[in-house]
Amino acid sequence: DVKVTQSSRYLVKRTGEKVFLECVQDMDHENMFWYRQDPGLGLRLIYFSYDVKMKEKGDIPEGYSVSREKKERFSLILESASTNQTSMYLCASTTGEVGKLFFGSGTQLSVL
Amino acid sequence: LAKTTQPISMDSYEGQEVNITCSHNNIATNDYITWYQQFPSQGPRFIIQGYKTKVTNEVASLFIPADRKSSTLSLPRVSLSDTAVYYCLVGDNYGGSQGNLIFGKGTKLSVKP
Description:
The complex is a heterodimer.
Chain A: E1 4-6, E2 10-13, E3 19-25, E4 31-38, E5 42-49, E6 56-57, E7 64-70, E8 73-78, E9 87-94, E10 102-103, E11 107-111
Parallel strand pairs in A: 2-11
Antiparallel strand pairs in A: 1-3, 3-8, 4-5, 4-9, 5-6, 7-8, 9-10, 9-11
Chain B: E1 9-13, E2 18-23, E3 32-38, E4 45-50, E5 53-56, E6 61-64, E7 70-75, E8 84-91, E9 107-112
Parallel strand pairs in B: 1-9
Antiparallel strand pairs in B: 2-7, 3-4, 3-8, 5-6, 6-7, 8-9
């Protein structure tokens, strides 16, 4: 089975801190994604990457950056965390096969 | 980008068949229709995908009419464990263009005993 692993299940950070969310997939997928999920808003795409060192902005990239130095790893970076970035963050990957995303279990981030 | 519209919530009882319909009036020629299931505190999980007519797998069936402006996910004989949020997505998902996949707010299905 495809496995997408997010480094932390729960994370608590303070306003202004730099936060790294890590995601690793074990199936040699080209494409990787970061979403955030908030009650009543569904999933919203932050950034995605279709190759090493390549990145594309999603719908809500403001306040975030990403890094993809290796094919299996896609990192989401909050340069200076703010309270409105408290959310569930979901990482996903896919080969490019139409629409079949594989998601991690998510990281619930609380910014105090 | 094709936008989807689904009911916010649905209720059902164990053993019933549940049909969740999704509208996607602006679906493009190259778009596929994909459904995901999400349990609380977990990431979404792929259920089924289709382009036209009917698709069936061990979990569900997907009905797509000829005009492709809507689709219906059918869950046969639901159980309590089918309580989840179901998302309908449309998109042309080749390579880097997978960024155009849009998750809406989904349909919260509640199955009661």
